[in-house]
Amino acid sequence: MAAEELIDARQMSGFKPFYQFQSPTRVIAGYGLIEGLGFEFAKEGATRVLVVTDEVIHATALIDKVRAGVEDGGLEVVGIYDQVPPDSDSSVVKGAAQAAHEHGADSILAVGGGSVMDTAKLANVIFRHGGEPRDWEGYYGLPRANDGLGRPEELAPFACVPTTCGTGSEVSFAAVIKDSAEHVKFQVGDFPLYPRLAVLDPESTRTLPPAIVAATGMDAMTHAIEGIVSSEWSPHGDACALQALRMLRDNLQLAVEHPEDDAARGNMLIAANLAIQPTHTGAIGIAHSLSHPCGAHYNVPHGVANAINLPWVIEYNAAAGEDIAAKYRDVNELLGLEVGGDGAAVGHALADHVRETVRTLGLPGRLSEVGVPESGIPLLVEGAIGDGCTLVNPVEPSEEDFAELYRKAL
Amino acid sequence: MAYFKSEEEVYEYIGKLFKDLSVDDELAPKFRKANTIVQYQYSNPKSQITVRMIDGEDEQVDCGPTEMEPEVIMTMEADTAHKFWLGKVNVTVALARGQMKAKGPVAKILKLVPLVKPVFPRYRAQLQEAGRTDLLEAA
Ligand SMILES: [Fe+2]
User: Fold this and answer.
1) Do B106 and A386 touch (CB under 8 A)?
2) Residue-level pLDDT at A221
3) CATH (domain of B90)
4) Closest Cα partner for A121 from A151, A95, A142, A93?
5) What does the pLDDT average to over A358-375?
6) What is the pTM of this model?
7) For chain B, how many structural domains are there in total?
8) What is this model's ipTM?
9) Which listed site, A118, A220, B108, B113, has its alpha carbon 20 to 30 Å from B40?
C-alpha cells in the first residue's frame, strides 16, 4: 500500500509509514534514591533548587527527606512552593514561577502527583520564557532556534519525584492545567517539558492511601491498554506498555492490599512510568475521552473514571475489526485470558477481567456510584467528542456511540 | 518549488474552499460547534486565512488581514495546507513532526478533522474545474 493511501487508515499492524518515539528523561529507580537526590540532580545542572509540592505532602516527612537529600549533594533548597491544589490552575503556575524568580532558583524539583508535576513543568516555561500560562497552550509551540525550525530552547533543569503511581507525568512532555477563570483545562506539550530526571523510589509512596494506589494504578492500566490499541501505537510503545501490564498484573493488587510492601510500591511506580510511554507517539484512546468530561463536570477522579469506562471501551473497540482484536489478543495472552474466538469474544474476556480487577481493588464500578446523573450524558458526550484523545482511537465513535458507552457505564 | 505562486493563489483555492464550506448547509453547522476562531498562517507564499466558527453565529472567512482575534493559530507551509485538502496529510503525524504547529486549544480543531474528510474530493473537483491539474499532482 502506498504511503498516501494509509493517511486515513487506522493501521493496526505491519510497518507504519511514520512514527516518532522519544523518551529523553533519565529515569533512576531503586531504594535510597531520595537520600541521593542532590547527587543526581547536580548531574542535570541544578545548584539552587525550588521544590514544588502540595500542602499535604509538605506536611509529611517526605519533604524533610527530600531537603536533606538535595542538600547532602551540596545543592541548596532555596524555597518550597506548596500551594498546588489537587486540580492545578493557571494562577498557581504563575505563583510557582514567581517563587522560582524570588528565591533565585536555577532549577525546579517537583515532588507530588500529576497536578504538582504539571504545574512545575509549566512554571518552568514561564520562569524561562515569561508570558501567561495560556500563551503556551498547544503543541510544539515553545521557542526554537533557527526561526522556529531548529532545536527547542532548553528550560531550567527539572526533576520529578512522583508520589502517585499513575500519571507518568514524570517522563511525559505534556502538562494539563485548569484555567478556572475560563472553566477549561488546557494542554501544553513540547520536547523541553520532558523532565531531565525522574526518581522512582518506593519511599515517595510510603504514605499513599490504598484507594489512591488503586485508582492511579487503573489510570496506568488504561494508559497501557489504550496505548497498545491506539491508531498511534508504535512497536516502541507496545514494548513498554506490555511490560507495564505484566508489572501491573503482578503488583497492583499487592500494593493496594499490602501498603508496607516496598517492592510492590516500587514496581507500581515503574509500571506507571512504562505505561505512559505510548503517549509519546500520541497513542491514547476514548476511555480517556469519556473520563475527562466526568472529571470536568462531576469531579470524578481521573483514575476512577478510567477504571469504570475502560471495559466498555475495550468491548466497543475489539468488536470493530480483526486487526484491532489482534492487539487485544496480545494483552489477553500476557494476562492469561482467552485469546481465541472473534473480536467480540476477545474484548469481552479482557473487559470482564478489568471489571473483576476494579471490583477486587474496591473501586466503584459504575458512573452512577460516583455522582454522574443520566441527565448529564448529553453534556458528557459533547466533551468526549471534542477531546483530543478521540482522534487516535482505533475506531471513530459517533455521537450515539459515545452516548451508548456512557449509558452502559452508568 | 511551492505549489502556489502567490498569496492570491492561496486565497483563490484554499480561501475559496473555506468560503464555500462556510455556507454549506450540511457542514457549516457542524463546524460552528467548534466554537472558536482559527487562523491559518501559511508560509511560502506568506498568507493568512482566519475562520470564525461560533455556534449560533454566521461563519466568517477573512483572507489576508483581519479584525477577528483568533483563539487557535495553525502554522504551516502553504504546501502542507494544499496537501491536507487533497487528503494527503495525517494531522497527528504533521503535528508530531512539526510540519504543522498549533497554538491554543488544539482539540477544538482536531475534532473537526474527521468532519473534513468529505471535503477532500470537493477541493480536487474545484482545482479540476479551474484547470489546475498541475496542483492535483501534489506528492
Ligand atoms: Fe490518564
Assistant:
1) no
2) 98
3) 3.30.1050.10
4) A93
5) 98
6) 0.89
7) 1
8) 0.73
9) A118
